[in-house]
Amino acid sequence: MEREEIINSIDTHLISAPPSRTIENRLKHFLGFPKSINSEYINDDEQCSWSSNTLLCATVFLEDAVNYQCITHKITEKYLLIHRWCSSPMIKKIHQIMLIINLCLAFFERPSSFSETSDVRDKPDRINFPFFILMVVEGVTLVWFSIYIFTKIACVGIKQIQRRFWIIIFLIVVIYSLCEWFVMLVFLNQLYHGIRLRRIFRPVFMIESSPLMKKAFQALSANALTIIASISLALIHILFFAAMAMFLFPRSDNRPDSQGSTYFSTLHDAVLHLLVLHSTANNPDVMMPAYSDYRLNALFFIIFVIIGIYWIQNIVTAVVYRAFRGYFLSSIVNSQLRRRIAVRASFEILKQRTTHGGLIETRDTVPISVVQTVLNCASMNKWHTKWISERLSELMLENETINLDQYSNTMKLLDLNPKLSPELHIQTLGGNMLDRCKAICRSKYFDLIGTIFAILSVLFVTIEVSNRPVNTDYMDLVAFTLPMAIANCCFLFYFALEIILKAWAFGPLNFFRSSTMCILEATVAFTCFILQVIFLVIHGTPIVSMIYLEMVKKQKPIFSLWAAIKVCNMLFIYRLVRFLPASKNIRIIVGTIFDEFRNGGAFFGLLFSFYYAYSILGMELFGGVMDDFYIRYNKSNITICGTYEQLEYWPNGFDDFYSSIITLYNVMVVNQWDIFVDGFRNATNSYWSELYFIFWYLFVTNIGLNVCLALSGDIHDAKKQRADQNEELIVSNMYDIYRSQIKEPSSEEITDQLNKHPYINFCQRSAEGINLS
Predict the structure, then answer these.
(1) What number does CATH give the domain 88-209?
(2) Listed residue (61, 36, 378) closest to 389, CA to CA
């Protein structure tokens, strides 16, 4: 009887523990405010209490576990509150917004990217935004970054900062950016057109804010010497064959079209053209003069390509692939170790309590009611909170206290992914007519009918657009496309009805929460439906209007309502994706593609950072040079076939940020990238400009593409292993992919890491307990 009363009292406490869901609390939760801990917890049964600072410290450690964060920060009440606020969802969202604003400033700064074209021949009129407003916006972001980094330093401590490379880099970049920003605003103003280094350093702010991105950079830097050595081997190979070409194909004054006179006239030209041949961009042009003279001359180029591309380039690929091979697995192992350490630390803190006599004591167990109090105050997913609370309720049936093993096993529920265990309470159907209709709408055959209609709709749109006879009579067009247009219009009405019936059969919440694909399907269906209804109301027919055809004939760019319907209609082809996972091997490939885009943010973010900085560097080096070059070209009236001028590459340049991105993209594709090298060398009258494009080519082909290859191979192997174990293939994050390969850290390893904490002596087992002051 006494046991039941204890359980009932604890259950009552657990039910009443969560804060009331008032409008104020709902607003704080929506904005991401951390939950408050205002008072100590008193346990009358054990004649002891837990101070508010102890509960706060345990809560912060538990939140560190949720976010895979390190616990080596200060543990006084002031710094715990600051650290908790800095880790709150609201501050993280504000920081992300500031990062986006800071990076997007490159589009608005002079010269801005807002013009109809980037072609220097048209002398585009740019929208120039006020200099003072842009400087104020940038100043706000820099001030935020300053507050962010100095707060982080205050919470971690000066001594610990010395071991954190990225925080030091972040601090240096912030200080330099503020100094340059102040000089620009006060002294130089908008008349200054020199180099602005702070714009090149902006990606540092983004890299520091992403743990995975920092680890990707660390994986790259750890193998930098090996990568440089392998690339140097390729350059030595090119230099050797360039010297050999100078001997084998000497320059001839009598034959200006000979191999030595056209491609290998100097060592510089020989090295550059063989480097381009290494990318196959000028093959077979570079060998034609020599091959036309003597057929065996082709062996020189064939041997060069075989050694350079099929041997040395594969060595470079293997080196970079090895550098990132297993990167995700090692990263996840380290993240899980941090989570286990934080969970253990929170329990060690809760073991300390204050007796009614004022003495501090430490026990091996903690009341479950105290754990529930900490859980209610911690910021975490509602799904995790619910399941952990249910687990604690089950443990209370056995004992009112919890030990370390039970606490650790309970907190392992944080590892579960809510997306893999959706709480969809689908109603069980009966035998009446209404339930039978719902069963039909839930069946796979109903979904199959919609997919067949989607394929037919896409097919009709394709035929209607591709066979549109714009140069014939309009009545012929109506007679040709009217049946398909009417059928397609009926399909659009059916798709909207299909979504309504599925939402009715499964329940609106269950249907839209079951898959992101359902939300996409509903969005496309109702968008097409609304656009089609508007078109029918305006024109009275589903056929394309004559006005649109007249605009097309005059080659005037127009995106009409009819074109919007057809573009939206083509999106129904995504429903074919549902048939791809039918085979296990195809599911592995599809899962690899999805997870590479979903979880490759660290790799792609790192590549984007370099892309961004390199585009800004191109603006600083080559901004405006093509305008002067075009003026000189018009005066000379000399056109050489196959050059930058003859191919009319004038829209490519570095006059603004958008143009820089497109130009580097065109060079990245390595199709005629040597044309850009020659063009900008002639524009600047300097051979040094070639290094900019050569370095970009070497980075993209040797590091960028191979990093993506390593990412794809790593995910594919993990998928293959999950398929062999009959586990789910398409999951939402990398932790679920590698879950089966992760070994739990030993208790000794966790204890060893806890004992290294700079501000808490977890080894202390005296009556005074752990000092949190």
Answers:
(1) 1.20.120
(2) 378
